[in-house]
Amino acid sequence: MSATAGDSGPDDRWGPARRLLAADVADRYFAAGQTKITIAAELGLSRFQVARLLDAARERGLVRVEIDAGPDVDRARSAGLRAAYGLRRALVVPPGPARSVPVRVAALAADLLRETVGTGDVLGLAWSRTVNDVVEHLHRLPRCQVVQLCGAYSLPWRRDGSATAVYRAAALCGGDAFPIYAPLVLPDRDSATAVRSQPGVADAVARFAELGTAVVSVGAWRTGHSTVHDVLTAAERKRLGGRGACGEIVGLLVDADGRVLDTPLAQHVVAVGEAELRAAREVVALVRDPERADAVDAVLRSGLVHTLVADAGTADALLRLTAERPVPGV
């Protein structure tokens, strides 16, 4: 073929012959993976003619680029959240029927854990129905240790207990399980210290400093949206609310600006501490309720979380919040 067929000056006609040539060049380059040099040699063109034909194929619509991260991930919302909060990653499930949201968020988080948890890691699981649902969707894991990150406000024989989730995850990977058979909140500091020193609990607490991946959910400081909030007296709730408590994560209270509050409550809980959580390689937060968006916003501003897995409704609410009040330094 003559090299002049590949000329692409601005006044050249874009006819069927040149259109077909551009399509052939594009197919060889994008689909077959040939280099421009190889294409030029086989078609009797120069490298510059090949490059111009590729440009023309894109500009004229012969080549259309479609980027699809998969049906379980909303790429635009995920990228927007990651950028807005400076996260390592954000994974957002696409919009869909409300009844399917909990399952899809849990399934996406389970897929993430299968991808990111490594052999020999210490995987920490907080107590929450969301985290427990994630474990229900796990089908395999590399061999690792699985530790419960906090006590639970549930009856030990209930199926959704955190110890059950820890044992299930450990059974999947063939690793050791370190459950915590204790309440999340104790009446006073001495009681919490005594519980932490009990042999079984102490074994779990000792793994907090070795955390590779921690999986947590976010609570909002109002009735029905935080286990910690709901087990306190009305006076304690009001006092902590007056201190600015907005979000809660494994017993840590965070205000709207992302500051972790220093309160006596921290001495009453059996849970991983702030320093241990910040030292973890990966902290994955889960949310599937737009009503908690303000609390999630607070927790994300704290820098405690590396990865967020969320539903589209919560993602949209978070993007609105950051548009109104951008995260400093991001």
Give a description of the structure:
- It is built from 14 helices and 10 strands.
- The protein is of the alpha/beta class.
- The chain has 2 domains: 3-59, Arc Repressor Mutant, subunit A (Orthogonal Bundle), CATH 1.10.10; 75-324, Rossmann fold.
- The strands form 2 sheets. The chain has a 7-stranded parallel sheet with strand order 1-10-9-5-2-3-4. Strands 6-7-8 form a 3-stranded antiparallel sheet.
- A hairpin with a 2-residue loop joins strand 7 and strand 8.
- The relative contact order is 0.12.
Topology of helices and strands:
Blueprint: H1 16-31, H2 36-43, H3 47-59, H4 75-85, E1 89-92, H5 101-116, E2 122-125, H6 129-136, E3 145-148, H7 162-173, E4 177-178, H8 189-196, H9 199-206, E5 213-217, E6 219-220, H10 227-231, H11 234-242, E7 247-249, E8 252-254, H12 274-279, E9 282-287, H13 293-301, E10 307-310, H14 312-324
Parallel strand pairs: 1-10, 2-3, 2-5, 3-4, 5-9, 9-10
Antiparallel strand pairs: 6-7, 7-8
Helix pairs in contact: 1-3, 2-3, 4-14, 5-6, 6-7, 13-14
